[in-house]
Amino acid sequence: MKFTKNFEFSRRTLLRAAGSTLLVPTFIKQSFAQTATKLPSLCLMMQTNGTHQASFWPTGTTFDSDILHALITDPVVGPKTTLIKGVNLNKQGSPVGNGHDWGWNGLYSGVDNISKGAPFSGGPSLDQILIGKINFSTPFPNIHCGAVVAHYSLVNAGRASFSYSAAAQQVPVETDIYSLYTKVFGSVTTTTGTSPAAAAQAKAAAMLRLTQRKSVLDAVATDLTTLEARLGPAEAAKVDAHLTAVRQFETRLSNAMTPGGDGVQSAQCKSVQPSQTGVLTTAEASEANADPLNQLYMEFIANAMGCNMVGVITFQFGRGGDHYHYGWLNNPLMPADFHNDAAHKDTGSNANAANVMINVGQYHAGLMQKLGTKLAAFPAANAGTALDNSLVVWGNELATGPHGIQGYPIVFIGGAAGRLTKTGYMVDVGTQVHQRLGCTIENIMGIPSTGFGWVTNSGPFLGLSLAT
């Protein structure tokens, strides 16, 4: 569907059409909320175990690579993708742990690890810094979530979450996609600030709807029909795009459930059941659910950003240094332990390890492409799409599998609400300290910054075209 790019459509227009008699879901109201200065919707992502450098970065004059092919050749997402080459982890002292811990806790904090019985970040992470400095108008300033399903015990507590409110103070990662759906989209009004009992009741009601293949939108279907009739064709098309996205997400969630005897309490996620345990064993974890969960999370993230429900969303693919088996890739060269027998052995002379690393990188690039495509399907309140008005940062805890910390694979996806004046290229101006990542994003989010973390004068990335 093609939307008129220069048609102004605001929350005021929507509410005027709704009047005082129609019940309109919160995410629809938020979708078309506008502020005097539009901030990008921001997503910070963390992958584990590094990448195969030779196959990640484009070479020559062609903006393409073996790993990133699906992402940067996509006709819609590719032109909105920017690669930052040459980012090195800039340690300020002697951080505890190893390369996994340093990048996991340091990439988005700009500080070294400290020891509190385990390697923890020595300061707050960027997401928590931003919500402390920006008065987001979204219902949820921050959501920190992830797919935690690996057949592997947690190595140390510092690898459980990369989000920190302060030194050694982790923000717990939310791993229940159904609870997140309930919180953000599962009711006509938001469940922000509700008691645990009320939240549990809301989730039970949402689970029942899903098992019965019913949408939260069914409850207000008549009002939504009336609303769209009061809007012009272009405005109604924009509203319909958001409604359709949420309905489709609900459908995929319901397809992943098998109702039990009572329809609610016994309902089980057939293919997307994350582990909630602190220490995983083969019996407790369900790695077969990793891919379905990742796919659902990409859709959830796009919906949350596209509907303007969250200021900063953070997502982690597992936990620091995860030992995934990646069985769903069906690669005959995949070893029993990807972490030890592929990532750590990708030294440049092991063809099998390189093959596996490329395969895993391509998988993640495909997820990024799907996320970007879904963002592009959301029409913005005014010109463009959610992809134009968002910034997704795809980061990694390592540069290379053997604990390498030089050349972190950093990818920006989206137009950042015009804050990136040029996209669809690779920044390649030599070595840059990783503190420039946080400094760059602070400036993109409207916070004047000359440095980040422990390097107060790092400046933003050189070679990146930022609006002044």
Structure characterization notes:
This protein has 468 residues and is an alpha/beta fold. The chain has two domains: 1-34 and 186-273, no CATH class; 42-175 and 276-419 and 433-468, Alkaline Phosphatase, subunit A, CATH 3.40.720. The protein has helices spanning 11-18, 26-31, 53-56, 69-72, 99-106, 126-133, 177-185, 196-211, 221-230, 233-255, 290-306, 338-343, 351-376, 435-444, and strands spanning 41-47, 81-88, 113-115, 119-121, 140-147, 164-166, 169-170, 257-258, 268-269, 310-317, 390-396, 406-413, 425-427, 432-433. A hairpin with a 2-residue loop joins strand 6 (164-166) and strand 7 (169-170). The longest helix has 26 residues, at 351-376. Residues 1-7, 260-271 and 273-284 have low confidence and may be disordered.
